[in-house]
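Input/output pair, single chain:
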Amino acid sequence: MSVSRRHFLAGTSAVMAGTCIAPRALAATTAPSTWNLPAKRPFQHIENEWITLKDGTRLAARMWLPEGAHTSPVPVVWEYLPYRKRDSERQRDTGFAEAFAPYGFAFVRVDIRGSGDSDGVLLGEYLQQEQDDAVEVIAWLARQPWSNGSVGMRGISWGGFSSLQAAALAPAALKAIIPQCASDNRYTDDAHYVGGALTLDNYDWGAEFKTVLVGPPDPAIVGARWREMWLERLKATPPILAEWLSHQHYDAFWQHGSVAVNYSNIKCPVYAVDGQIDSYRDFLPRLLANLQVPRKGLMGPWGHKYPQIADAGPGLDWVTEEVRWWSQWLLGVDTGIMKEPMLRVFMEEQTAAEVWPRDVPGRWVTEKSWPGSHIQPTTLFLNPDGLSDQPGAAATRICRSDETLGLTKREWFPWNLNIDLPPDQTPDDKRSLTFDSVPLTRDTEILGRPTATIRVSSNEPVAKLVVRINEVTPDGKSWSVSYGVLNLTHRDGHEAPNPLQPGHHYDVEVPCYFTAHRFKKGNRIRVALSESLWPMLWPSPRPVTLEITTGASRLSLPVRPKDTASDPMPIALLKDRVRKRVAADPGGLRNQTITQTGPDAEGRVMLHKMLRDPPETLIDIGTTMSGGSDWFMSIKEGDPNSSVWKLEWFSHLKRGDWDTTLQSTLELTSSADEFRMKESIRALEGDKVVFERQWDNRIKRNLV
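Output:
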């Protein structure tokens, strides 16, 4: 098991178990008096059940069934992932199932075709075959003798995508979904391209995903054929990163599986959940604004986590909330959940980076519908003397690409919060074009997506524009509130970019990430503009000089009046969960480090990020897991094509004489005209290499 951006940390089971102690005492505060949390009952655990599809393929499922379900059928909630149910996600699945199934719901976890213990090969993300299989599984779950025919789908990250994609196919038995930390747009909102710019996270995820594509089945489940299945996967695996890099625009490749292409395809109720420091969060307000089905949204202060294991906190008693949702839509019981506001969001009073690992200070606010009618855009102009509510003189300010600007905002996806949260932004601010407000005379709260409109010209046909919105405290520290990125060739859309005409002035709109934040009285709002943001973004093909026109450039903030009434929070809070986990396992943080060296005599800066998951034995099945990754990134100031991203990822599974290791590597370099993408995969049994393959692809740059 590797320290993963899309997997979930060990120990989840214990945390989850803690969330199901209190709900009985809290029932009166979590729903109207006409609905009470169901009494708990025993349940049966089934380690593996085969779901046979029409083409004969067998998908592996792990199941939890409430006692009496065979005589009095129950609703079914399921998750659908390529992350191994047998081991790597075992504790997470067990934790949720044992907290949830006692309330009278079956819970089923299915390995996607070609992953875990399921038959077949997996060749990519969100393929049509995967979605067609999901429809078959839903029908299978609905017709089981222990099922009442009503199916719900939940999941985080890939599981959230799967839920949305299955809902877009409108299978009759799928009655509701809870997608968490997912997206409706695979191109801009799933690590690959942000604002049309190529991201480091594309390669981090790709290196890990190569090990997901070729993971070995467990012989305890599939028997002696495990090695044959494993080799079949290894031989079939594609150069996935080269494939992603071959699609540099929002074409049919990325539109497939992006429900934003047609929101009306979704016919069932949706409860969207995310966290304020998760990079997927913009999907939530878009779903609320564009879906036409019963829907709710919840945005907490956490990252890419379920609310009950929130990091950063405070978290929520989420199992109780799910029981309310599924009772409403799978049992037809009016729990009162749909009488509550459409959106509930945590209004932070400081950023997570300022206070982690302590809980983020703030309060929960609500909106009866989204967009909220009382949220008003407030315009601040980027003037020669700073931010102002009135336009100032039109003057030209110069913004040059700076290859090492971005070291305080390294991560699109902050997973390991002790090293990934953006620290004080001052070092990058000093190298950016900055515009500050005067100290605020009152607290100002924003809820929504800030948008910058910038009048810009470029001396090159390909360039980027990065807008960072920070809060500056009286001691001079600058904290990241939101930011936006735009590949300027994508100024009219991501499907058909156009090169810039050097010297021509454009008014471009740069949407920034959704946020709920209070700017404190006495602090200042800062807008920082740059062309570069390395290593998060790959550099433009050639050095760039941007000209920014002040007075005509402006920032629109979605201001929410602070005295706006909000409904009381009906879900119990779980405070200081992260702090308690850190105190219990301080050594765990030593397995995550990042070091920076340089600039050396040539001006080269080097970063090494190291993640390690030490051996952990799953007591109930006897499997020991370990893994980790190394990231090596470097660039030389003044030379955008000196950038190198090199990643090494490994995972190890062992039980008795079953001993497998997977190693994947990648290296990305570029010239002004092309990318060079090297990939490899290596598999071992014990110390013996059983499969090895390398790819070396050159791919033309296409306005990236």
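Residues 128-142 form the longest helix (15 residues). The chain has three domains: 12-186+256-373, 376-559, 590-700.
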